[in-house]
Amino acid sequence: MMGSQGGDQERLFYSFSLEDHVPKDHLLRDIDRFLDVSELRGQLAPFYSHTGRPSIDPVLMIRMLVIGYSFGIRSERRLCEEVHLNLAYRWFCRLGLNEPVPDHSTFSKNRHGRFRQSDVCRRIFEVVLQRCMLEGLVGGEGFAIDASVIKADANRERFVPAADAKKLAEGEGGSRAVREYLDALEGNNPAGPESDSDEPPSGASTPPKNVSPTDPGARWTAVRGGPAFYAYSTNYLIDLDAGIIVDVEATPAHRTEEVDATRTMIERVQRQFELTPKRLVADTAYGAAPMLNWIVNEKKIEPHIPVWEKSLREDGTFSRPDFHFDASANTYDCPGGKKLTSTGRPTNVGTVLFRASQHDCGSCALKQKCCPNTSHRKIARSIYEDARDVARTVCATPAYERSHKQRKKVEMLFAHLKRILKLDRLRLRGISGARDEFLMAAAAQNLRRMARWLTPATV
């Protein structure tokens, strides 16, 4: 016999429990086991008034944000709607069926006000990381670092000359992102000109020619094979044991600033959590001589990083590796058996110049394979060449081959960030907005990683 639905929706009393309607294997159940943000009330308390009506519980908004970043719900308006309708989301937020969900405008006020002033997003990330460490997911032996470009909330078709950026602060154009950019610009110390040495392109502190009128802190950049756009970079420092993110730093999408974030993150992790890795894994962009010197000689970390080289020639003539450096005599021996000497004075680009005798080169049978277009051969040696030699030695070991494969873990995190968590374009503007988004997304990734690694599989 065919049945029919009763449709009795006018009952006066119901016996209903959210706990019974959330599946036992739901991701939020696993995340809830490892998330405790109750202590953040104390951090946020100074930013609330002691008088007036009680505000919305900040822990409720934090839990809602965790849901948004964990499930790729990018819109605050849609997040509020989903929490209103989804029983599992209500359960995670500790909301009963009859309790109201905060309005989406409340999120905007708190994210641009109390949350940013108190740096609560950084604290949320650290609370999650501490739990990862407590659960034994952070070994501290090997770290990997990399950066990924995220589009800014800025129209690529609109720009103004950077020289006119101060005019953006006048009238209605004085947005938070504009004021933030101008404050940072005034605090910058202009760098010197770029140089032809074994270093990546410089000029991070030099303002670009054009900026976005809505988010001037974003940098005009492009990925290979695609159109240019305004963007920020999220920089991840991860532990290689379980792929846990141990620090995050937001920078404009500029290679030098991405590389400089390495120092900031390693020192912060060392200061906050007393973690100093034995080895650091990165790609060639991080293989500049000053960075390698900082890693090897100052931090005593083994660099599993390819050296940034510009001395290798492709025209068939001798490259610098064909010359042998005699450390005891501080000279180079050329393939023809002659010596290249130096005054020992470093240049303004951090190199010491070694020169061969013009007489030796003029009568050498190998001149056409050595310096066919100059009267004598010159070699520039970095003042940090000892650190570069350490990196070259490490890169020739089997341990480096294993590290090179492990570096894919950070690239997989970036793919997860963009494809699963939907963070391929920012919603908040300015460097502080990018920082908040990157920190919350990284905290969500760590929570999901804990849930996957530490929750027993259900049969």
From TrEMBL:
Ranges for domain Transposase DDE:
334-451
Query: Region Disordered: what ranges?
Result: 186-218
Q: Which Pfam families match?
A: DDE_Tnp_1_6, DUF772
Highest taxon in the source lineage = Bacteria
Q: Where is the composition biased (Polar residues)?
A: 203-213
Q: Which residues form the Transposase InsH N-terminal domain?
A: 17-112
Q: What is this protein called?
A: IS1182 family transposase
Species source reads Ramlibacter ginsenosidimutans
